[in-house]
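Subgroup meeting minutes
Present: P.N., E.W., G.H.
Scribe: E.W.

1. P.N. recapped why we're keeping a running log of single-chain structure predictions: easier to compare across weeks, and new members can see raw inputs and outputs side by side.
2. G.H. added today's entry (119 aa).
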Amino acid sequence: MSELPLIDPEAIENLRALTPGDNDEFLREIITIFLEDTPQRIAELDQCFAAGDIPTFTRAAHSIKGSSSNLGTLRLRALAEKLEHDSRTNGLGGLAPDLAAVKVEFTNAQAALRMYFTA
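Output recorded in log:
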């Protein structure tokens, strides 16, 4: 995953283009929602993984994939897509390393996105 950029600048610019001249208020709002919601989805992944709940795990991974795509957090998106696909096709066996990687990439994305609050 490290070959992908952490954040896709084009995705950020696309969000900015939706509300030009708002001094990045909309962008910061979207980032805030992402930063508040994603830990809940990751916790859901953990709970479903432990319980063996494949359908809910797959939906949580899909949700992370979508929100990551919107913000251009490419590495997190790729991992969430892998979790979604693999859980749907092969179940939850063997996904522990990828689940751990999602947590690391969210932390990395979180740090990168926080810079938009100081810019």
